[in-house]
């Protein structure tokens, strides 16, 4: 795994730390993790036509390409909106599920891959919601 990140002002935070990502995804070589350095905020890929309805803040997304490489992106969120309890829940509950989803996608044979797949994690203010999309 390769990991890149940016520094944030004290009013913003990520849903997980660098150490959490290294501990969870460290052995997955096909993964590039980015903490705010690719995009400041989440945008749907232009090839994605079946878009889920997202009402809260997107805090993370993981994408698997046709070549079986993956990109994990964490997006900054306001500290007032996303507190320590939410970050702890993300670390304990959401990160292991994300890893399971990612490993299952990367372990498929090349002939089973139909297109790009993405899992989007949204924070609604009270809970984490997961959305899965697929596009060509």
How is this structure best described in words?
The structure is a single chain. The protein is an alpha/beta fold and 136 residues long. It has one domain (2-135). The protein is 23% helix and 31% strand. The strands form two sheets. The chain has a six-stranded mixed β-sheet, with helices on one face. It has a two-stranded antiparallel sheet with strand order 2-6. Helix 1 packs parallel to helix 2 (84-106). It is globular. The model has no long low-confidence stretch (mean pLDDT 92).
Architecture blueprint of SSEs:
Blueprint: E1 2-5, E2 12-13, H1 18-25, E3 31-35, E4 57-64, E5 70-74, E6 77-78, H2 84-106, E7 116-123, E8 128-135
Parallel strand pairs: 1-3, 3-5
Antiparallel strand pairs: 2-6, 4-5, 4-7, 7-8
Helix pairs in contact: 1-2
Choose one word for the global shape.
globular
Number of spatially distinct domains? 1
- Quick one: how many beta strands? 8
**Element order: H for helix, E for strand:** EEHEEEEHEE
Give the C-alpha Rg.
14 Å
Query: Low-confidence parts lasting 5 or more residues at pLDDT below 50?
Result: none
Could you give the order of strands across the largest sheet? 1-3-5-4-7-8
Give the averaged pLDDT, no decimals. 92
State the end-to-end distance: 25 Å
Q: Structural class of the helix and strand makeup?
A: alpha/beta
